[in-house]
Amino acid sequence: MEQLAIQADHWLSGVKHVPSPFYDSRPQGEAVSLLVVHNISLPPGQFGGPYIEQLFTGKLNPDEHPYFELISAFRVSAHCLIRRNGDIIQFVPLDCRAWHAGISQFAKRERCNDFSIGIELEGTDTLPYTQAQYVSLTELSRVLMDYYPHIDTSRITGHEFIAPGRKTDPGLAFDWYAFKTALIGNDVN
């Protein structure tokens, strides 16, 4: 994988770009200060395929799977997705507001989309994430922390913690201890 870096246009180098229409501008003067980890699999519990990209670009066909009938009209996105093999796909420029968190609150501030970056892991709440995903998430998080000085390890959280009772991801399968230990240390393997 090419070295990850944030370019002047707020897209990452070294990753696949699939622009989503589901974003807008952050509030004037709003600093990025939070990283939110999510999970997604489409259909639920299945990995691979084009469906996550289709959902985040408004192209999901409701006739391809019964579950898609429920979600095909959703206008959602994330800044990035990390596939099971560690590949990163970016959907929204980092300086813009992706529509990933919904009704949410962190440190007594509501509307987390205003000040956060959303990273989706291809996975479920209950199946272990892959080592390749942890390596990519750690590398991406370090790049984001270097670029956005208000993000530190205390400001990296899961969707379940900013929308309790409404969301459960990334779930019990996500190893926060191993991830944050790798993030602080030099070893991402």
The gist of it:
This protein is α/β, with parallel strands linked by helices and about 190 residues long. It contains five helices and twelve strands.
Describe the structure.
With 189 residues, this protein is α/β, with parallel strands linked by helices. It has helices spanning 51-56, 66-71, 131-147, 159-162, 176-184; strands at 5-6, 12-13, 16-17, 23-25, 34-40, 80-82, 88-90, 96-98, 105-106, 109-110, 116-122, 156-158. A hairpin with a 2-residue loop joins strand 9 (105-106) and strand 10. Helix 3 packs across helix 5 (176-184).
Characteristic key phrases:
5 helices, two-stranded antiparallel ribbon, 189 residues, 6-stranded mixed β-sheet, single chain, alpha/beta
Could you tell me the strand content as a percent range?
15-25%
Tell me about the largest β-sheet.
Answer: 6 strands, mixed
Shape: globular
Q: What is the averaged pLDDT score?
A: 96
The helix tally amounts to: 5
Helix residue percentage: 10-25%
The radius of gyration over CA amounts to 15 Å
N-to-C series of helices and strands: EEEEEHHEEEEEEHEHH
Structural class: alpha/beta
For the largest beta sheet, what order do the strands appear in spatially?
Answer: 3-7-6-11-5-12
The counted number of beta strands is 12
N- and C-termini, Cα separation: 15 Å
Spell out the blueprint of helices and strands:
Elements: E1 5-6, E2 12-13, E3 16-17, E4 23-25, E5 34-40, H1 51-56, H2 66-71, E6 80-82, E7 88-90, E8 96-98, E9 105-106, E10 109-110, E11 116-122, H3 131-147, E12 156-158, H4 159-162, H5 176-184
Parallel strand pairs: 3-7, 5-11, 5-12, 6-11
Antiparallel strand pairs: 1-2, 4-8, 6-7, 9-10
Helix pairs in contact: 3-5
